[in-house]
Structures are given as C-alpha cells and as structure tokens.
Write a structure and sequence with these properties.
- By secondary structure, the chain is mainly α.
- The chain has a single domain (about 5-125), classed as Creatine Amidinohydrolase.
- About 50% of the residues lie in helices and about 5% in strands.
- The protein contains three helices and two strands, in the order H-H-H-E-E.
- Helix 2 (about 20-50) runs antiparallel to helix 3.
- Its main location: cytoplasm.
C-alpha cells in the first residue's frame, strides 16, 4: 500500500524531514528526559495525594491535565528557537485497572474518576 502524496511532498518528507543527525538525536533524548521527569512528577502527585494523604485525591482528569501542563512548560523552556513543529505529540493518559491505552478524561466531563486502594494505575505520556 502506498501513500497518496505528490513526488514533491515525498521528496521533502524523505530527504529533509527524516534526517537523523546529531541535532535531531539530541532532541529525541531531551524529549525522553522530559517524558521520564513527567512520569516521576505524576507518581509523586499520586503518592502524595493517595498514599501519604498530604493532598486531596486528584481525579484522573486532573492528573492528565497536570502532566500535560508540566510537559508543555518543560518544552517551552527547552528550545527558544523559531520552530514550527513544537509541542506534545500525544497527551498524558492514565490507564486504570482493565482500561488500556489512551484514557485521558475531560476535566469538565461527568466522570470524576478517583482511584481506590486496590486500583492498578499506569501513567503513559
């Protein structure tokens, strides 16, 4: 199966966009560090609000929003260059128990999912 793009677009995509040089590799490494730091931040929020009870329990939606805003602020501080494509490729998602891949509830939604003591929570960003 081939993509339906023009030869000019294919040339730009293959010759200019998909070049893996040292600069691009450093950007991937930085993105990985930001992502790992965000996971640690979310785990600390979950521990402080559920296990240690220092804070009120966050809902899944609040944790997703806090994770997204953390990554956005970290990315804004990372590169000040005039870059067109900058931002989060996929929002933070939280999987609870048997819910897999991509649960990122809306803050204004009716589902105020607060975790219970036996829930298995996985943070993905």
């Amino acid at each position: 199966m081939s993509l339906q793009i023009s030869s000019k677009e294919a040339e730009v995509l293959l010759k200019q966009k998909n070049v893996l040089n040292e600069y691009v590799l450093e950007k991937y490494k930085l993105a990985g560090r930001i992502s790992q730091t965000c996971v640690k931040y979310l785990v600390s929020l979950i521990n402080n609000s559920y296990h240690l009870q220092k804070l009120k329990p966050y809902t899944a939606a609040e944790l997703c929003i806090l994770g997204d805003s953390y990554m956005k602020s970290a990315l804004n501080d990372a590169y000040d260059l005039n870059v067109k494509e900058k931002g989060i490729a996929q929002p933070v998602t939280i999987d609870v128990n048997d819910v897999l891949e991509g649960y990122s509830p809306e803050v204004d939604g009716d589902n105020k999912n607060i975790f219970s003591s036996r829930d298995v929570v996985t943070c993905i960003n």
